[in-house]
Amino acid sequence: MPAAPVQNLTDLDLDIEGMTCTACARRIEKNLNKVEGVSAYVDFATEKAHLTVAPDVTREQLVKVVEDTGYSVGADHSELDAMKWRLIVGAAIAAPVAVIAMVPALMMAIPHWEVWAAVATAPVAGWVAWPFHSAAFKNLRHRATTMDTLVSLGVIIAYVYGISQVIVGGMDTYFEVAAVVPTVVLFGRWLEVRTRRSATDSVRALMAAIPDDAVVRRDGVQQIIHTSQVKVGDVLVVASGQKIPVDSVVFEGTGQLDNSLITGESVPEQVTVGQAVAAGAINLGAALVLTATAASGNSRIAQIADLVREASAQKAKITSLTDRISAVFVPAVIGISVLTFAAWMVLASDPNTALRAAVAVLVIACPCALGIAVPVSLAVATALGAKRGIVIRHPDTLALLNRLSVVILDKTGTVTTGQLRVAQSIPIAGFDAARAVALAAAVERNSVHPIARAIAAMDSSLTATSVTETAGSGVVGTVDGTEVEVSRRAAETFANAAEVQAAVAQLGAVSIAIVSVTNHAVLVIGLEDDVRLQAAEAIADLSALGVEPVILSGDAQARVAAVATQTGVKRFFAGVTPEHKLETVNQIRTEGHGLVAMVGDGLNDVAALAGADVGIAMGSGTHATQSAAAITILDDDPRAIGYAIRLGRTTWRNIKQNLGWAFGYNIVLIPVAALGLLNPMLAGTAMAFSSISVVLNAMRLRRAAR
C-alpha cells in the first residue's frame, strides 16, 4: 500500500533522536532539503526538524531520509533517561577504576588487577561510550569528523592499547582513560540536554494552562464538552478555582482572575461585565458566566504557542560559526595527534609515551564545549524572556539588542493604554450632532482600532454597509445611502477647512477624528487615552541604558507633544502615516549611531516593525503585528523593553565568555598534551570540565539578567 501523503499540511515537525552536536543537525537538515518540495531547518537545541512540505511529500519519506542519515525520528523524549542510566553505570565503574589506577599500592593489593580492570571497563568503553562511537561512525559514513570522533578515538585507542598490554603481560595500561573520559564527557552532555529541556518549561506551563473541558450552556442545558468543541458565541460557566477554557467576555458576574501564567503578574485582576478575559486565567472569585469570543485554536495562548514554535524554527546565524570552526578544527587535531605520536616515536622510540601523548591530544581537544557554547546561552535567555512575558521569536535578535541605540515607540497602545474615550465632540456645518455621532458609530463598528472602538461605543442605532478601512487613515462606509468617512485627515483637505481648524484648535491636545459627508466635515471628535503608568519608568530606563527613546505616531502634533512631555521623551514625530513610519525608521537608522528598534501594536505599525533592525510587538496587538516583530511583550508592559535590552547585552557577553572557555582549554592544553605532560585521564576530565563550565556559565544568565 502506498504511503499516505501529508494531507495539505504546509508545516511539519519531527522529533529527531541521536543528535550529539550542531554538525549532526546541519547534516540532517542538508539531506532533508535535498528532497523536492521540502524546506527544512533542524534545531539542535530543541531536537526538532521544522519543515515546510509540498502536499505530495509523505512523512514516511522524511523519516527515511533521517534514518538514512544515521538518526531516528521519535515521538517521545527518552534521551535523558537513556543518558542517565549510561551515566550511572559509567560513574559506578569509572570511579573505583580511576582511584585504584592512581594509587599504586591499591593496584598491587589486587591480584591480576589489569584483567579485572579490562573486564570492568568493557561496558563503559562499549555501552556507555556508544553514543560517541555511533556518532563517529555516522560522521565517517559522510566523510566528516566532529567532536564525537575525538572522544570515540580516544576511548578506543586507550582500551585497545590496554588489552594489548594485558596480553603481553605489561603493567602500563590506560583502562582508567577508557572509563573516565566517556563518563565525564557524558556528564557534561547530560547537563547540556537538561538545560535544553528546562529552557522550554515556561512554554509547556503556558500551554498546560488551557483546561481539557469546558462547561457550556446550550439550548438552556448546561453540559461539559471538550475545550476544542467550544464555538464563538457559546455561553460558558467558570466556577471558582477553575481555568477559563477560551478567550471570552464576561457576561454575568464580577470577580478576580489570576493571570500570572499569561502575563507574569502575581496581582489578581478585577474583572466586570463586558471585560475581555484570556484562556488559561484562573477564576479566584465567584462563578463567572462568559461569552466565548474565540475557539481554542485561536486563543491568545494558542497564538503565543505559534510564536514560540516559530521561535524554535529560527536558525541562529552565530550558531553556524561553531559548525564551520569544528569542520576545520577536528581534522587539524587528529593531524596533530598523529604527528605527536610520530614525533615521540622518532625522538624517544617509546610507543607507550607516544601513545599516551597522542591520546591526550585527542581527548583534550574535543570541542564539545564549542558546540554548546552558543545554543545553551540562547536557550536559557529565551526561557528567561518567556518567564518575564517576552517571547523572543528570532534568537539572533538577542545579539541585535546588544547594539541598539534608538527605540522608536508607537504612541497609542504602547506608550498609552490604547483604551481611548471620547472627551468631547463639536458639530460643524450646521449638522445635527446626534445624527453625526450615529453615522460615525455605524461605520466604525467593525473596526478594531482603538479610535474606532471608542467612537462605536457612542451609538448603535444605525448600520453601515460597504465599509472600507485604510490603515492609519480612516474608515469609509455607506449609511442610509450616504457615504460617510471617519478619518484623521488634515483639516485643510476638507471643503470647510476653516470650520475644521477652529474646532480642532478648540479641542486642544487630544487625538482627533473627523466625520465627513461628501468631503464636508460635520463632526470633530476629540479622544483621549491614559499614558501607561509604567511608561515614564520604561523611558527613563531606556535613557539609563544609553538608548534614545523616540515617540512615533499618526496622531495630532499637540497630543503627541503632550504625551512626550509627560513621559520625558525629547524627540517625537506626529501625524505620520504607516508608509512614512517605515521611512522615519530608515531615516533614524541613517543617522549611523547604531541599530534601531520599533515598538508597536497596530496594523499601521507592521511595515515599520518589519523594517526595523528589531521589531517589538505588544501582546494586545494584532496577529499581523506580532508576526512582523521579532519580540512580543505579552503583558503590554513597556518596562519589558529595557529588560529585553539588558537580556540581549548579558546574553552576548555570556556567549563570548562561553566561546572563551571552549577555546581556552584547547589552545592552552593541546601543546601541553603533545609534549607528554598531560595524563589522558586528566585531559579527559579537563575537557569535560570545559563543557560543564559552559553550561554553568550559561545558567548564570538567570541571575545576571534579573
Write the layout of secondary structure elements.
Elements: E1 11-17, H1 22-33, E2 38-43, E3 48-53, H2 59-69, E4 72-73, H3 79-102, H4 104-109, H5 113-128, H6 130-141, H7 147-168, H8 175-198, H9 201-207, E5 213-218, E6 221-226, E7 235-238, E8 248-252, E9 255-258, H10 260-263, E10 269-271, E11 276-277, E12 282-283, E13 288-292, H11 300-312, H12 317-348, H13 351-364, H14 368-387, E14 390-392, H15 397-401, E15 404-410, H16 411-415, E16 421-427, H17 433-444, H18 450-456, E17 465-470, E18 474-479, E19 482-487, H19 497-507, E20 511-517, E21 520-528, H20 535-544, E22 548-552, H21 557-567, E23 571-573, H22 578-589, E24 595-600, H23 606-611, E25 614-618, H24 623-628, E26 631-633, H25 639-674, H26 680-699, H27 701-704
Parallel strand pairs: 15-22, 15-24, 22-23, 24-25, 25-26
Antiparallel strand pairs: 1-3, 1-4, 2-3, 5-6, 5-7, 7-13, 8-11, 8-13, 9-10, 9-12, 14-26, 16-21, 17-18, 18-19, 19-20, 20-21
Write a structural description.
The protein has 706 residues and is α+β, with helices and mostly antiparallel strands. The protein has 5 domains: 11-77, Alpha-Beta Plaits; 80-200 and 313-368 and 676-704, no CATH class; 212-298, Calcium-transporting ATPase, cytoplasmic transduction domain A, CATH 2.70.150; 395-416 and 532-629, 3-Layer(aba) Sandwich (Rossmann fold); 421-528, Calcium-transporting ATPase, cytoplasmic domain N. The protein is 51% helix and 19% strand. The strands form 5 sheets. The protein has a 7-stranded mixed sheet, sandwiched between helices. The chain has a 6-stranded antiparallel sheet with strand order 6-5-7-13-8-11, with no helix packed on it. A 6-stranded antiparallel sheet has the order 16-21-20-19-18-17, sandwiched between helices. The longest helix has 36 residues, at 639-674. The radius of gyration is 32 Å and the shape is elongated. Mean pLDDT is 80; it is low at 1-7, 198-203 and 308-316.
